[in-house]
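Worked example 3. Consider a protein that binds G3I.
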Amino acid sequence: EAAPLEERYKDSFNIGAAIEPHQLEGISGEVLKRHYNSIVAENVMKPINIQPEEGKFNFEEADKIVKFARENDMDLRFHTLIWHSQVPDWFFLDKEGNKMVDETDPKKREKNKKLLLKRVETHVKTIVKRYKDDVDSWDVVNEVIDDYAPNGKGLRESPWYQITGTDYIKVAFETADRFVGKDAKLYINDYNTEVEVKRDHLYNLVKDLLDQGVPIDGVGHQAHIQLGWPSLQQMEDSFNKFASLGLDNQVTELDVSLYGWPPRPAYPTYDAIPESEFDRQAERYDQIFELYERLGDKISSVTFWGIADNHTWLDDRAREFNNGVGKDAPFVFDINYNTKPAYWSIMD
Ligand code: G3I
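Given these inputs, the predicted complex is written out as structure tokens:
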């Protein structure tokens, strides 16, 4: 039987996987217990699932994941308290049901801002109090940077931002900090953190918040990467840059797509993927884990955005860009949970 991934890296960082509750059972559950020492919810802890209606919290699915982590002595990441996607509309409607972003009257805008910040506080507080003894790492905000934002600072102009400026970020971190367990860490999570423009926007924001005393412990790097992009140097520079602020780094959503962006052309089925692609992928995995291990004191956890090739969000992308046909294969276990060349390359 294949040796546990987590054991191979236990001196450097945690090895995690993103999961849906149904994956806790059966073979995926067994693979999880054997190879990983950290888990995160792929979807069920996002705002739309946790508080679909104001004041109506739904913890049922999230609780299953928390219980599994507890029973199997695994670390738990929480993804995500605040995000612009998978968030219900009610957050951004005023008491009369009007869209707060459309408000032009300065007095009413001020009132709306207060209302939304109160909602942020309630959302964060309710969740953090419930899970404070279980969660080790919190994604407090996700994807607040947008390279193309018209403000030129890369601040994503989501409704959160349009209504509160960057105060929603501050309030989210400050509220979380008031209630989290004493060893828990608070992260700002984003994708493409290796790309210089985006990295620097994120750096400037984080530095500014830290200067204001906002309690940020680390940066989550999603790492949805490809066979040839980004470069190892870009990855290394980004980890170092945030470490220079005294922050921890976590790799939070790792997958290595076989495809470029958009993912065209894609192989139509798993069987159609030639072995040579898996070998290239193994080489890539080998290089990035060598980098992670070398920077081990700056990286506390490496989480894959899934377990095995039978379940990956990348299939949706491959299909979307390929007229409904396309299969990706981003992990180190294949569609039957067997080890791929990438598994052996990172165990070496
Ligand atoms: O639950 C419904 C189901 O009832 C319905 O039949 C089905 C029909 O499409 O949709 C199901 O919901 C889907 C959900 O995943 C659960 O499978 C949503 O349509 C789908 O949009 C959603 O996608 C998730 C995506 O975030 C949402 O933006 C992916 O699974 C999830 O992997 C992805 O994760 C994000 C991270 O949170 C943040 N970073 C990027 C990453 C990849 O996009």
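Take a moment to read the result before moving on. The chain has a mean pLDDT of 97. The pocket of G3I is lined by residues 42-43, 85-86, 142, 191, 222, 253, 313 (CB under 6 Å).
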